[in-house]
């Protein structure tokens, strides 16, 4: 059997190295891009010392270089994705401005006349030191009064007075006796009056000193002392669809109080006519 030739001379060694290097370069050319790992592997392979063998290599097929698949060796330049900064976004923001609605204010009509409800004559009002009186229809002419002034309700000045009048409510809902003329809607404003008449109360039976007689009405409760004279509201003005309307008041005696103790009385009805005399009975009083 023929013995294999031992590659002892340098020329044979160089030839084998060149063959190995060519094979590796061919493998590298088959790859798309040679990464740093593959170049380092080739350098290491060329620098390794040659080992003598007694026969031909067991595997004559050159080993293909190994490339790390997980490592990205691409040298393709990165693509730039356009971005929008906050300043650019602010510049492109569309601002919608809602127009402010225009409010039209209707000028107030100056006050020219005042109508009293109920219509009473010789009721006095004052404006800037001047006095104005109502006529027989209860109308007060203010056409010559200063518009930017104060309205003052004075009342009845007749002596001796048979009635008292006071401001109950205006047609605009105000209950003030004195107001700025500029705040009153014109040309005509109504003043609802509370008209009071003088009434004397007399008891048929003796009543303890300080006893109070309790009356009820649509205007609320009323307390009077026996054998005394007092001003009692006889009418008032109330709002209605057609403006202010006069409402007559009627009173009903229902109880008597003595030192904080209440006694119920038989119902007795009275009207506050001018200079009226109310004669009441306390008979049949029952303690609550």
Could you please describe the fold and organization of this structure?
- The chain has helices at residues 10-30, 36-47, 86-92; strands spanning 113-117, 123-127, 130-133, 139-141, 150-156, 163-170, 178-180, 188-203, 212-216, 222-225, 228-240, 243-248, 251-258, 261-270, 276-280, 286-287.
- By secondary structure, the protein is mainly beta.
- It has two domains: 1-55, no CATH class; 113-287, no CATH class.
Which structural traits does this protein have?
288 residues; mainly beta; seven-stranded mixed β-sheet; five-stranded antiparallel β-sheet; 16 strands; elongated
Query: How big a fraction of the residues is strand?
Result: 35-45%
Oligomer type: single chain
Separate helix tally: 3
What's the rounded overall pLDDT mean?
Answer: 78
User: Main beta sheet, described?
Assistant: 7 strands, mixed
How much helix, percentage-wise, in residues?
10-25%
Query: What is the terminal-to-terminal distance?
Result: 152 Å
User: What is the N-to-C order of secondary-structure elements (H for helix, E for strand)?
Assistant: HHHEEEEEEEEEEEEEEEE
Summarize the structure.
The protein has helices at residues 10-30, 36-47, 86-92, and strands spanning 113-117, 123-127, 130-133, 139-141, 150-156, 163-170, 178-180, 188-203, 212-216, 222-225, 228-240, 243-248, 251-258, 261-270, 276-280, 286-287.
